[in-house]
Sequence to fold (774 residues):
Amino acid sequence: MFDIFHNLGLGFGVVFQISWWSPWWLYGASLPISINILMCLIGALVGTLVGVLPGIGTVATVAMLLPITFGLPPVGALIMLAGIYYGAQYGGSTTSILVNIPGEATSVVTAIDGHQMAKQGRAGPALAIAAIGSFFAGCVATVLIAVLGAPLTKLALAFGPAEYFSLMVLGLIFAVVLAKGSVLKAIAMIVFGLLLSMVGSDIETGASRMAFNIPELADGLGFATVAMGVFGFAEIIRNLDAGAEMNRDLVQQKITGLMPTRKDLIDSTPAILRGTVLGSILGILPGGGAVIASFASYTLEKKISKNPSRFGRGAIEGVAAPESANNAAAQTSFIPLLTLGIPPNAVMALMVGAMTIHGIVPGPQVMQKQPELVWGMIASMWIGNLMLIIINLPLVGIWVRLLRVPYRLMFPSIVIFCAIGIYSVNNAPVDVILAGVFGLVGYWLIKHDFEPAPLLLGMVLGPLMEENLRRALLISRGDWSVFLTRPLSAVLLAIAAFLLVLTVLPALRAKRDEVFTESEN
Amino acid sequence: MADTMGHSATANRNTSVVISFCLLAIAPQIFEFIWSFGTIFGWGAGRGPAAVVISHGTALLAGAPGAALGAVGGDTKKASSDVLLALIYSYPIFAVAILTIFMTIRSAQDYVGGIALMALALFALWASSDLQGMRGFSFGAGTAPRMFGGLLVALGAGIALTGLLTDGPGMAHYAWRGPLFVMASIVFFALAIRPLGVVVTAFASFMIAAMGTHETRWVEAIIVGACLTLGCALLFPYVLGLPMPMFPRFLVQ
Fold:
């Protein structure tokens, strides 16, 4: 127990680290600033902005801002990228409630009841409850990371290559179970991702694989490049299909009275608690993350409510639960990344990319060798959540005004920004073209109802999986049964097989689809 | 199965699917052929167009059947990469295309998606065919790609099969305007950033991308494009310190 306080203390120390800044216009005088708090603020603000604007997702933004973090110290870079992720969960709720356009996939369900509340003139309480719920969930998740971090790291250090491989198989199976739509298609996307990760030099022999003598491919496909193509460009092209003009029925009346009533608070407290618990659990599981958490918690609230017909007509629980759940999940999804080095979703996969650029190999060693990095990031999450609740509510007006920027002006700007971002990663024009090609691939995938998220997960886990598989088989001298004879590995694989069987069973499949049906009304 | 000819609508749609599969089957060859025109102007090192046509033509028509027969007869002569491409990639897709003629497709979305993934996996199998496989119990460079490639072939076939067995959505509608201009903008950006610099490239790419929708109003787009260009020109090279050429090379010199 004492360890946790010690570690969190270390983290806050890192975040509040003061450095002296002497700009030329002060003629030698210095100002005390904390770079990390500044990064946290920038990340949270950019995240909120992204969350507010529909048509640009978290993954694309993190990929876009990756090159910007090159010049920063590693702690600052990670703090900023993390801020973008949870900031987007806050921002997404604002547009859902006020405009009925979810800025983010995670706040799709918030729109159902949130927008109804806004129409009834209760936009203020809806926004406030969403923010309070998110803040509470964020605090709980931060504590959870701190508590679970150390023991999980110890467990991870006991893992051999066989266990690691089995764990990754389990993670990918989770991604399949929690993905929307056909199981077969989700598995195919993962394998496609694994195959893409094979392009480039072989780690052990250095042989060039599937690179076709193109020098730019010798190093492998850049993860940010593919992410930007599949999530950024493909999304833009898809949005253009429907016509650039989206119907935006803004709630015109002024938002007055942010404070929720006593009854609102009493109604939403249990919902926030349930949402936080469910979100925290689903966030840790690979593949799900914030999107499934918000859907699942909304379904749960509707199921256990005494009067389910209230949902869809402005029930405050329908705002409180999903908003707490998505924020909790966004933060707890850092746990597998920080302790095991396995990214549970696409945003975390980009965080791996960011860490690698700064020369940090994610995994259990990081927590022991660079504790200030991990704990600094965890502490910054709590501070970021605090900042978000303070800055977000007064800034609602500005965010809403931003929504009036028409998509016909926004999309070329996003294209240019993405292109410059990709170019600056390696100063390679070929990367830009590759991202464009993957944009077309992503567009095709969307048209054929394939989910791109498992593809990215497969692509990140590919090299890790291959390496551990090779090592495990080398140690066992080519005996494949090693995955079943080592107890921990056998348990992990058994869970994976069990999950896969469950998902294919018709009864459970219907349940799984039910969770997602809320998005279709 | 011959009664599919009776339903003229199904037959019509099948024909277009079959033709596109046939094109898919020789897509890599066509791509190399187009690429080879560059060698005439001295870009890149590769075979000329004539050499490409002759080599792939003989591989598809003569080499591959010969190699296939030879393999049956126990002849283990090493096949060239073109012959392997025809054997591993083109022939299976042609076979699928021929089979498609006799099928009733119940969900074109799944069927075409599955077959395309299968084609991709077959292509990956060909691309990794020159790599070393297992050496005793240790993995070679080619083991993992072949494993995943084989798995994806099976999964693609499975998805295609669901498209045949269960009813589902047909092919989605593809727009051409958005993808065309956004891609044109990206390609222009990639080609122009080195010689022309950020200022010219960003503005021109913005304008090309803006053509992606008919709703664009030009005055508005020019103003926003100029502002964005200015912002990027200040943000990336100066604030973030990323090295980038600012102005066209010929103006700077």
